Amino acid sequence: MLINQDFSLDRSKYIGGSDIGAILGLSRFRSPLEVWMEKTGKETKRLDSLPLRFGSFAEEFVASEYSRATGFELIHDESIYVHPEYSFMSAHMDRFVLEDSSSSSSSSFPARILECKTANPFSHSQWGEPGTDQVPMTYLCQCIWYMAITNIKHCDLAVLFGNSDFRIYEISRDLKLESTILKKASFFWNEYVLKDTPPPVQSEADCQTLFDRGDPKKCTEAKAQTLELIKRLQTLNDEIDKRVEEVSSIKQVVMSEMGEAETLTIKGRVLATWRAPKPSLKIDSKRLEAEHPDLVNTYKIPVQNSRRLVIKPVD
């Protein structure tokens, strides 16, 4: 049975469909650590931004195109649904789908879920043929998540690429994959969120987020393994420097051959272009500060810079 909750509930108390891909390390936009920061109240996600507003605006259009293409009636339910066994797992569906349009919306049980997306027209390689379940993994997991919570067996994912390519993908419930996802979500919640222990970092940005402030009084003795890694890093940096020099030398040859020409071709095919971009405008901050210091001081705000990692040479 579906457990209906108020949509205004605090996101930090639940794992939602938009979180699960990041928790599994599949998202290009968020890491597990960022989700953990939100759920533990260490960082509040901004709920009003241009991408979010556009997504909300485009959702209505994508849903209407889906209804037009399929003839199915849609239900827009603003509620949050909570998993019957796991009280921290929630779902907010874009739409519910009624395949039998002859029945009234109030008495018909949804046949499937509809998830609405917009995508960059250059991201086609990440998607399969329409009608299949070949969608980006983070979206697949989101659909699996919604089906697990609602006990609905089918989820359609409607996506609009740019403003000219509309597709519908069909995802069926996979109990084995569902079980794996729920187990990983449970582990994340119980071991990291409830214990207030951060998940393993996955990037330098994660390290900056987790350890954003340093203590000048603290000093840590390096492990033997860390010393070897630093030596390896130096070797890699030396190789990078050599490659950068080689790249620069090649560019110099190309630029010298082109001279004043803006285009380099071979048998009519363009190999390179060398053009000045359109002029851009910027504020002359030094002049502004010299001529209007009082005005500049009014708009100055303190900026906390990120910590900078500097590796010293090791013999």
Can you put this structure into words, describing what you see?
The structure is a single chain. Helices cover 39% and strands 15% of the residues. It is an alpha+beta fold and 315 residues long. The protein has two domains: 208 residues, Lambda Exonuclease, Chain A (Alpha-Beta Complex); 38 residues. The protein has a five-stranded mixed β-sheet. A three-stranded antiparallel β-sheet has the order 1-3-4, with helices on one face. A two-stranded antiparallel ribbon has the order 9-10. A hairpin with a 7-residue loop joins strand 3 and strand 4. The longest helix has 35 residues. The N terminus is likely disordered.
List keywords for this structure.
315 residues; Lambda Exonuclease, Chain A; 5-stranded mixed β-sheet; 9 helices; disordered N terminus
